[in-house]
C-alpha cells in the first residue's frame, strides 16, 4: 500500500463531509451514558442498554478495527408534521447504500481494506465518532452540529482496518462548541430538554412519536397536535442558530409531496394495505400507521 494519504471522494457519493477517527476504546462519556440508562431516561429504547462493551469499544464490534470513518448525509426540512429525515426512503437504507459504494471503491483501490458500514442500527456512538473525526461538536440540544453544514445531517460510519492516520485529516473547524445561547431549551414544547445536554426521552415528542409504541400521554398528545408534529419534532433544532437549510439527497425527498398532501382525515381513513403499499420503503413504517394516527389526537 502506498504511504500517500488516502483520499475518499465522499462528495461524489453525496456526502457533505468526511473525517476519520482512531477506533479507540471510549472512556470519557460512559459514566454519563450509564447514568442516563440508570434513570430510565431512554424510555422503551431498551437496545441502548444492551451491548455496552461493543458500544464503547469499536474493536469489540468489528474485530481488527483501526478507525471509524464518518460521513455526513444531508436531509431537508420537515413537512406535513413529519421530520425532515423521514420525507423519503428510510434513512438507514439511503446512507448505508452510499457507504457500501464507498467501501466498494476502497476495496478496489486497496485489496487489504475491510470495513463495515453502520447507520444508527448497531451499538456505535455515531455522534461521538463524528466529533472525534473533527467534523463538529455536540450542541446543548444533543444534536451533532457541523459548523459548516448545521444540524440536518445523518451520520454514517464505516469501521475499518486502516489506521485513521492514513486518511487525509479534516480541516480545523470554525467553532468547536455551540455557544450555549439556550434557545433550544426555551423552544422545547414538552419539557424534555430539561437542562443543557439533559434530555428525558420519555417526554420528547420525537421519541414518543417515532420510537415509542405506547399512546402519547394526554398532555403531550395535545402539545404534539398544537405544534403539528405527527412523526418527529424539530423545535430544538429549528431554534438553533446553527441550523441551516441543506440540499437533501434525492432519496430523502421521495415522499415529500404525498406527505404534504395528506390531511388528518386522509391519515385516519388510510388502510393498512394502502399504507404498506405507499410507504413500503419509508421510515414512517418504524412507527406504523396506528401510531401515526394516535400521535396526533386533537
Ligand atoms: S425533539 Fe422536540 S420534544 Fe424533543 S427535546 Fe427537541 S424540542 Fe423537545
Ligand atoms: S440552540 Fe443555542 S444552546 Fe441550543 S444547541 Fe443551538 S447554539 Fe447551543
Can you tell me about this structure?
There is one protein chain. By secondary structure, the chain is α+β, with helices and mostly antiparallel strands. Helix content is 31%, strand content 12%. The protein has one domain (8-298). A hairpin with a 5-residue loop joins strand 4 (137-138) and strand 5. Residues 187-188, 190, 192-193, 199, 204-206, 233, 235-236 line the site of one iron/sulfur cluster.
Helices, by number, come to 13
Unreliable parts: none
Number of strands: 8
Order of helices and strands: EHHHEHEHEEEHEEHHHHHHH
Helix content: 25-40%
Whole-angstrom Rg: 19 Å
Task: Give the CA-based shape.
Answer: globular
What average pLDDT do the residues reach?
93
Strand content: 5-15%
Strand order of the largest sheet: 1-2-6-3
- Biggest beta-sheet profile: 4 strands, antiparallel
Distance between the termini: 62 Å
Structural class by sheet pairing and helices: alpha+beta
Small-molecule binders here are:
iron/sulfur cluster
Q: How many structural domains in the coordinates?
A: 1
From the structure above, extract its key features.
8 strands, alpha+beta, 298 residues, 13 helices, single chain, binds iron/sulfur cluster, globular, four-stranded antiparallel sheet, two-stranded antiparallel sheet
